[in-house]
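Bench notes, afternoon.
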Amino acid sequence: MNNDALTAAGLELIRLGYHLGVTTGPKGNQPYLPEWQNYPVPASHWHQFVEFPRTTGIGAITAGLAVIDIDGIKGLDNWKAFLAEHNLDPSPYRKQMVSTPGGGYHLYLRDPHQTVTNAGGLLGPVSKIDVRGTGGFITMPPTQRSGTPGYRWVAGPLSVDQLPEAPSWLEGKLRWTSSGEWALSAATGDWKPELTAWGEEQVTSISMRIADAGSGGRHQALITGAVAVGHLIAEGKTTAEYAHASLDAAARLAGLHEEGREMEVKRTILDGFLAALSGRLVGMETLIRDLEAAR
């Protein structure tokens, strides 16, 4: 992949409000860096990351985004049938589209309150349709894969703020169960986070990135930062009260409280916390079941 092309494309996407990382792996679609969910690559360092020896392309952290991933002809047929069956307008899903090396498509939507999480088999286990939301990562153009046309824009790119909002049927912390039903992930357990020195340092660093974000990416910075802080809360490194106050102050400095949007900012922060916490609980449920089965 031409480094100049990746550099130019990445800087433009960052300007449009996307939080990016570089990709690696044989298929060119794996995040290169550890802790990629919490630390998107800033524009000031983008060129250096592109030049890493194993960098293969560009990927977006999908906190604040909902990307419907349609796999091949079967997935596309199922998607068309789903839209027709439920009499859904297809036009919003065509505003920003990417064709994938496997003959499928990525459809981009905006998820400002992070109600969409990752799901495989979105319309059923064999639907060939997945979704990437909070906690996810999606490969973006002009990433290439050997022997294929690579990832290409069909429509777009738009700024994050210009994307259509995710529909209500994608909302909720849902997962597909072995019994063939959707189930909500419940919050359980005795859990008492405390404000630690390390946690305070991390919250401060994240808050500073939000406060310094430009007008094109400040909302996305708040969403991504809230999820990152949510993981700190889940680890017991900071309290929700302290973290919320810090992020809310950063949002004010970034200008997000303008035009009476204070409550929207507060909801966005809480949604980010909940998204991080619910994702960890789903993982714990799986771990507990596996341990019980091994007894």
